[in-house]
Write a structure and sequence with these properties.
Blueprint: E1 39-47, E2 54-64, H1 69-78, H2 93-110, H3 117-132, E3 136-138, H4 140-145, E4 157-159, H5 166-181, E5 185-189, H6 209-224, E6 233-239, H7 245-249, H8 251-264, E7 285-290, H9 292-300, E8 303-307, E9 314-319, H10 320-334, E10 338-341, H11 342-347, E11 359-360, E12 367-368, E13 372-380, H12 393-413, H13 419-428, E14 431-436, H14 438-444, H15 452-480, H16 490-506, H17 514-535, H18 550-554, E15 569-573, E16 579-583, H19 586-593, H20 598-611, H21 639-649, E17 660-663, H22 669-681, E18 686-691, H23 706-715, E19 736-743, E20 746-754, E21 760-767, H24 773-790, H25 795-802, E22 811-815, E23 818-821, H26 824-836, H27 839-845, H28 850-857, H29 862-868, H30 870-879, E24 919-921, E25 924-926
Parallel strand pairs: 4-5, 5-6, 6-7, 7-10, 13-14, 17-18
Antiparallel strand pairs: 1-2, 3-13, 4-13, 8-9, 10-18, 11-12, 15-16, 19-20, 20-21, 22-23, 24-25
Helix pairs in contact: 2-3, 2-12, 3-12, 5-6, 9-10, 10-22, 12-15, 14-19, 15-17, 15-21, 16-17, 19-20, 25-26, 26-30, 28-29
GO molecular function, one term: ribonucleoside-diphosphate reductase activity, thioredoxin disulfide as acceptor
Keywords: Cobalamin, Cobalt, Disulfide bond, DNA synthesis, Nucleotide-binding, Oxidoreductase
InterPro entries: RdRp_reductase_class-2, RNR_2_N, RNR_lg_C, RNR_NrdJ/NrdZ, TSCPD_dom
Amino acid sequence: MTETTSGPTGRKGKGSRKGLKIKRVFTTAGTHPYDTLEWERRDVVMTNWRDGSVNFEQRGVEFPTTWSVNATQIVASKYFRGALGTPEREWSLKQLIDRVVGVYTDTGRKNGYFASDEDAEVFDHELKYALAHQLFSFNSPVWFNVGTTSAQQVSACFILSVDDTMESILDWYKEEGIIFKGGSGAGVNLSRIRSSKELLTSGGTASGPVSFMRGADASAGTIKSGGATRRAAKMVVLDVDHPDIEEFVETKSREEHKIRALRDAGFDVDLGGADMFSVQYQNANNSVRVSDAFMRAVETESDFGLTSRTTGEVIATVDAKGLFHRMAKAAWECADPGIQYDGTIQDWHTNPETGRISASNPCSEYLSLDDSSCNLASINLLKFLREDDTFDVERFTRLTELIITAMDISITFADFPTEKIGETTRAYRQLGIGYANLGALLMATGHAYDSEGGRAVAAAITSLMTGAAYRRSAEMAGVVGPYDGYKRNEQAHKRVMRKHAAANDDLRTIGTLEEPIHAAATGEWAECLKVGERNGWRNAQASLLAPTGTIGFMMDCDTTGIEPDFSLVKYKKLVGGGSMQIVNQAIPRALKNLGYQDEQIEAIVEYVAENGHVVDAPSLRPEHYEVFDCAMGRRYIQPMGHVRMMSAVQPFLSGAISKTVNVPEEATVADFEHIYFEGWRLGLKALAVYRDNCKVGQPLSTAKTEDKAEERTEAAPEVIEVPRPVRRRLPKKRPSETTSFSVGGAEGYITAGSYPDDGLGEVFMKLGKQGSTLAGVMDAFSIAISIALQYGVPLETYVEKFTNMRFDPAGMTDDPDIRMAQSVVDYIFRRLALDHLPYEERAALGVLSASEREAQLNGEDPAQIAAQVESYSQSASTGAATTESAPTAPAEAEEKRAPASEGFVADAPLCITCGTKMRPSGSCYACEGCGATSGCS
């Protein structure tokens, strides 16, 4: 985007420096960038799916016709400033972009970044073009604050510090609260605080960091509930050699046991439930900072010393492998703690003379000095894939240098939540350029995400981005000087630049797509080292990979951050309301690149639209299945596939990668140990692993009933004539039971009528207002099920077919035995199974009560628990009808139900704004409905 020249180096004598010479790449002189787009007026009306109430309404907003309805809604509702219904309210994307870019351009002009006013105008136009065309986006605080009367906060990521004094601990509470109040998140390392095994100067025993975590957690929970723009997010880190490390590791897993006990006792422990206040440590992500020495001790099964915070002496030893196992077990139980690899982090640190990198932001991608911040921006990679399926290296490089220039300018005018953070950030000028849509780019070009070719493409793009960013940083240093802390850290910074360049030299290309990208990256790193040797660098850090939650939706990205595609079928919002199901547009492009003809592509796309996966798609060769593997679905990417992708790009990033590796429910503690160990071996800086349903919720089951069906088939005698089934009606007076329920906020009732001596005979389900279409459909469904039961269809058949069926409303329930349901139908038939099927039948179908699951978790026999429950034993003789009375209707088409191995999103939280289930976005969650996030940018 910008071709630049720079004048002499030096911090003083600004008048003698030439500034940056900006060349047009996207724009044309005499044509305003907005005139390259077609614009239209739209009405934005966002409703709550539960009750239809209006959450947000602004009519007549102006957006390009190329922007989706979803992007329009998110930008209008979140980023437009001014009170609704007043003339001051922004109503056009042009106003929003003008507000932000105007501040960047004016600040750059006043501070000597540009060679002339003409160059400033070109910078202004190029930046506006890139934003309006969705080529990239700044992080959310920029859109919230820049150009408004609010503080000009541009950073989304913060790191704090805590020393071993009460004053410092109380300052931590205050500073964290200020950051949370603005809707951002912060991380902190508590390892300087003396342990509970050490003495105070007064002679008493210290409380230890875990004790002080309680106060910070309560503060975060209170401020989060105050209705900030986004949920508060926080990271707490403890070094592995801290004497309280074992208590820290199990902090959240113990609380998870408490939640289960409260749930089973009937307390309200739903998300935001009235009784959740007694559960602690739920507002933070916890991570253990492990050293290379510790990991080597794990590898050799050696002892490891825990050191005093006051004397530095070893005061206890632990079995390293045993402690590592406890970390993995705790994460297996509740997803915490994650791991941060200290050796790798410090090895790539550009400012070690100033201080160590002790902590990260809540999503683990920003790793830098204490009391610092980072502003982020992400590039939409798919915008640089040409029609001929080559990557536009030149435009990508120019956009990178334009963004880095703008991001550095923002530090000049930015405000910060505390003076300490402001001082550090202005002195080191940490930036976080990254990208989104990598998964979509790989699929569109026919690359499997988990493949050597896919990793080579990702690595080459990341190397080019960071090389161009640091080269531009060196050019800016020649214009406005290097960062204040550069001279002190000059040798270390140069060493890290050489490490990046060496990693680029070691990168091996496989296909034709990445060859020119890698060649350009090699040139950028050579120029970066040359110019940096002369000028130094303007920025201590340049790149990382953020989750790109809200801004990913703003750019209409198919995939966020480094993530693969979520699924092959998506839902697209329509301008007039409602939505339509569409097959990912990357699929036909991928098929074309793989050599398929138009007729074959059309047939495969039609198959995917109907089935949601590519297995057995007509004409599709099995060796191409892997190209279409997604984060969830019939074929999902294996956990180590995610780790290997992270490892491929990590050497080309200043920071780290926001990503959680999802594993299926049946994953073992040993699997966690393997993933965490491989993360260290492969050179990652941070890693978190999440097991599906590890939080309190209804477990999914992989139990199958094929074997039982086969046994019945083999035992059945040969029948020449099959008698017609006979309906057995219920008596006029029969026992029944009514159960009220709530699934994802939708309330309803189940009334189950039984034969006096022989099991379930009718089911009536109520959901929705009387007279509504939904209520009518549920009545009809109830009658159909009831008649079939009376004709002898086994209840277990319905349970097998309808459990795990996935559609909205879904989410948390008010049933202590079934904490999470994939849909109302999923809940209903799980409840019926618990009430009317014997334990053996339910266990085969994966439906267990809370007490049975607890027994299973504790290594006990759930069958003994079931035998003690009188209601189950009474219904055991009637709950499973025999196949002799089953009807012989033709086999129905298999209903679409999600296998237990699919998804890995059962525990995703519900959006606090609109109530829909969120989806993973890096190590956070993002809502596709309204753009709300759980802490990401």
